[in-house]
Amino acid sequence: MTLHIVNKSPDQTQCLKDCLRVFRPGDGLLLIEDAVYGALVNSPYAALLQNRPLVYALIADIEARGLSAMDTGSIKRINDKQFVDLTVQHSPVQSWY
Amino acid sequence: MAPKRTLIVCRKPPYGNALAREALDVALTAAVFEQPLAMLFIGDGVWQLLDQQDSAGIKQKNHSKVISAFPLYELTELYIDADAMQQRQLSHDHFVVAVKPLAADELGDFIARFDTVLSF
Lengths: 97, 120
Known about the structure:
The complex is a heterodimer.
Chain A (H helix, E strand, L loop, with lengths): L2 E4 L8 H8 L5 E4 L14 H4 L5 E4 H6 L11 E3 L1 H10 L3 E4 L1
Chain B lengths: L5 E5 L8 H14 L4 E5 L21 H6 L9 E4 H6 L12 E3 L1 H9 L3 E4 L1
């Protein structure tokens, strides 16, 4: 199964939408850097990402951007070690940037 | 001769690339030289204003701490795109400094009042 890693805000680029076009059931999706804005329940992109299994967001990037107290719904917050674990568990790993 | 009035337009979120940070550096430099300056946060740029940023985990300088120091530099002409705030369901309580909202139909006229516009 593929791990997709998106690092751009959904309001800045097509990265997230392009990724979801090829996303298969069972694939993992990890939001890092500016992509974590898409993890918010209040985001206009919530319908694309909420209540979907295997969607993750990196805690360090959530904290950096002041989003810790905001609702990320069903999206799992993971730390750097779990990020490494995900890359080991999946093959291939595709970055979208 | 009157000094030129400069507007800094911030469209990018913090941390993902260097632009947000560079805008702050320009703002602080201009303030030190007492140049008249305003800042306008539009689109994803509004994320720069969020309180409670903790960038220790990504080993970058804390963006909101710099913005919170703006009043010390008399940088108080801070404006925000009200539509961008609303789309992201943000309120003034989320922000680290006081910003004045501008409606979408005011933005064009607002920008046109300045001699120089720097876009980040």
